[in-house]
Amino acid sequence: MAVQIEAFYDSATGTGSYIVINRASNQALIIDPVLHFDLNSGQLSFELANQQLAFLQANHLQLKYICDTHAHADHLSAAAYLKNHTDALTVISQGIGEVQQRFSARFNKPVVEDLTQLYDVLVADGDILTLGEIEIHVLATPGHTSDSVSYYIEDNIFVGDTLFMPDIGTARCDFPGADAATLYHSIARIHALPGTTKIWLCHDYPPPGREVSLQTTVAQSREHNIHINHQISKHEFIHRRQAKDRTLGVPALLYPALQVNLWGALLPAKEDNGRRFIKIPVDCKGADCAGI
């Protein structure tokens, strides 16, 4: 039985979010939901998530799972918001704990040892979730982050940031815990799938003259991806990826996104004045910091 896929696009962050539907059981899951956050004003909005909730209601669908592919550093996850409005379970890689530990000191936020306090379902490579009779296969695809997973559903795979459109390439590998060699092997797993398998992307940053596209195929990617295709060796890929990463700036929403996404997609607790605050670590070293 073929699943139905509805794509939603957040233009502010270039993010694709998906509702995957089993019409036979009227069940659905959401992959990589987006919570809007304006960095300049600190204003939150729920436009995309509310569009998805309205779609579910209009089509009489029960939301069973809310799945993130990894701890996003370029947008806030709406997983907790959607959970609060449905009976769905939040799903993320069990590797999220390792990533949280890496950033705990950076944000002066405590490590949560029992991750079930933050997430309902922690998945690992080879796990299978079900949507009615449809199986959702979890593939570990680290490299961009150490906790990255992909969700393989019938002839569709949702790869998070692991791959982009063939003319854009692959995800960066310069975050703590990331590794270009590991990403190479993760993409090799994806490229080993049948060529007709549809690859659904979490982001697209199209060059001038091309419209946004959130879907390619395994055959197109392994033949034409500019960073990793059948003609590019592992050594060459690592060299290209690391050279590209040295030119990249810090994502605009890095600090807000990680402070939320690594702690259950929950907003920081209110402080004694009733307000919530995102922390921005200040890097100030040596004599320049003296006296200030």
How would you concisely characterize the structure shown here?
Keywords: Hydrolase, Metal-binding. With 292 residues, this protein is an alpha/beta fold.
CATH class: Alpha Beta
Number of strands: 14
Query: What would CATH call the architecture?
Result: 4-Layer Sandwich
* Count of individual domains: 1
Global geometry: globular
Q: What proportion strand?
A: 15-25%
Rg over C-alpha atoms, rounded to the nearest angstrom: 19 Å
In whole angstroms, the N-to-C terminal distance is 65 Å
**Level of helix content?**
10-25%
CATH homologous superfamily assignment: Ribonuclease Z/Hydroxyacylglutathione hydrolase-like
- Give the strand order, joined by hyphens, for the main sheet: 1-2-3-6-7-8
CATH topology: Metallo-beta-lactamase, Chain A
- Overall pLDDT metric: 95
Spans where pLDDT lies below 50 across 5 or more residues: none
Biggest sheet descriptor? 6 strands, mixed
Judged by helices, strands and strand pairing, the structural class is: alpha/beta
Task: Report the order of strands and helices.
Answer: EEEEEHEHEHEEEEEHEEHHH
- Number of helix segments? 7
What does the model show?
The longest helix is centred in the N-terminal third of the chain and has 12 residues. Helices cover 24% and strands 22% of the residues. Strand 1 and strand 2 form a beta hairpin. It contains seven helices and 14 strands. The chain is an alpha/beta fold and 292 residues long.
Topology:
Blueprint: E1 4-10, E2 15-22, E3 27-31, E4 36-38, E5 43-45, H1 47-58, E6 62-67, H2 79-84, E7 89-93, H3 96-107, E8 121-123, E9 128-131, E10 134-140, E11 149-153, E12 156-158, H4 180-191, E13 198-200, E14 215-217, H5 218-224, H6 234-245, H7 254-261
Parallel strand pairs: 3-6, 6-7, 7-8, 12-13
Antiparallel strand pairs: 1-2, 2-3, 4-5, 9-10, 10-11, 11-12, 13-14
Domain Metallo-beta-lactamase: 14-203
GO biological process, one term: hydrogen sulfide metabolic process
Organism: Salinimonas sediminis
